[in-house]
Amino acid sequence: MTSMWIGPDENLAVGQVGFLVEKHQTLKGWTRYELRDVPAHTNQSIEPRLQGWCGTYNDLATHARGMAIVDRVARNGRAYVRDLEGAELEAALDVLGYPELAPRPAAAQAA
Questions:
Q1: Tell me, what's the pLDDT at 21?
Q2: In this predicted model, what pLDDT tens digit does every residue of 30-55 receive, in sequence order?
Q3: Three-class SS of residue 101?
Q4: pLDDT computed for residue 78 by the predictor
Q5: How far is CA 32 from CA 13, 25, 85, 105, in A?
Q6: How many domains is the chain partitioned into structurally?
């Protein structure tokens, strides 16, 4: 399980769940993470994605990094988030209206 600090964002609250989206600009060398109510979408097919690269436009790459929950918020607005997995992930996907993004077991993927 991964945990990290993101933000600052004055709208993040402890217990808030969302899709973790990474924005990365290669030329300027910065990376930013956002917690959103909607998943990142691919820039060609406009498909929602839970994990993986979604595309690059004007040197700004977008990556879906799963779902996370805010465990604590610092005074400056930065939030400490941790990844959701298993039943916790499936419940969060259902609440936000994207149950079809739940990872399938390996046996189901092979079929």
A1: 97
A2: 999 999 999 999 999 999 999 999 99
A3: helix
A4: 96
A5: 18, 9, 22, 31
A6: 1
CB-facing half-sphere around the CA of 104: CA atoms within 13 A: 7
As given in the structure block, the two tokens for residue 73 are: 């918020």
Model confidence, pTM:
0.90
In a domain, 16, yes or no: yes
Location of structure tokens 């610092």: 74
In a domain, 84, yes or no: yes
User: Which residues, at least 6 apart from 68, have a Cβ–Cβ distance to it below 8 Å?
Assistant: 17, 18, 20, 35, 81, 82, 83, 84
Residues of the chain with pLDDT under 70: 1, 106-111
Look at residue 106 and give its three-state secondary structure: helix
